[in-house]
C-alpha cells in the first residue's frame, strides 16, 4: 500500500550558541579585569605585575604570554574600556546633517561605562592628581575625552567662548564619570553597586537634566 506523501518537517538543529572564547582569550579577559580593578585601587605605580598575576591565579611569567609588560597592559585596559565609547562618538560626529546630538547619546555612554566602571576612577585620578604625580597614559586618554566633548558640543550647535565651553565639558565629565568613580561611596551609602539598573536609570535622568539645563544651542 502506498502511503500519501506527507509534508517534510524542517530538519531540527540544536540551538546555536556563540562560540566559547578560547582558553587564551578567557585568560586575557581575566587579566584585564583584575588589572583594571587593581590599577583603579592603587594606581599604575602602586600596582605590580605580581599583584595582577596573583589576583588572576597564574604565575607572573604567564602574564608575558599575553602582554609585553605593565605599560602595555595598562594601555590595553584603557583601550578595552574606552574604544567602544570613542566609536560611538565618532559615529555621531560623522553624520553630516546632524543638527543636534542624539538624545540617547549619554544613555548609551553610561551603559558602556557600566561595563568597566573602574576606568572612571583612573580617569578622575588623572584629572585631579598634582603635577608631580602625573599619569601620562591616563592623561592622554583623558585629553581625548575632553576633545570629544568639545567637538560634540560644537556639533550640537552651541556657540560659546572657550572658557564656558570648557566648564560645560567638565560638568558633563563629572556627571558621567564621577558617578562610577564614587562606586565605593554608593555601596557604603546605599548598599548597592553602581551598575544596579535602578541607579543607572536615575543617573541617566540626572545627566540628561544637566544637559537640558544648558539651554538650546544658538
Task: Give a brief rundown of this model.
With 218 residues, the protein is an all-alpha fold. The protein contains ten helices and no strands.
Q: Kindly report the average pLDDT value.
A: 86
* Helix/sheet category: mainly alpha
Using only C-alpha atoms, the radius of gyration works out to 23 Å
Largest sheet: none
What percent of residues are in strands? under 5%
Helix and strand string, N-terminal first?
HHHHHHHHHH
Q: In one word, what is the shape? A: globular
Tally of extended strands? 0
Uncertain stretches of 5 or more adjacent residues: 1-11
Number of helices: 10
Keywords:
218 residues, mainly alpha, 10 helices, 0% strand
Topology:
Elements (H helix, E strand, L loop, with lengths): L22 H20 L6 H8 L3 H4 L6 H24 L11 H9 L4 H11 L7 H20 L6 H20 L1 H8 L6 H17 L5
Plain-language structure description:
- With 218 residues, this protein is mostly helical.
- The protein has ten helices and no strands.
- Helix 1 (23-42) crosses helix 2 and helix 1 crosses helix 4 (70-93).
- The longest helix has 24 residues, at 70-93.
- The termini are far apart.
- Mean pLDDT is 86; it is low at 1-11.
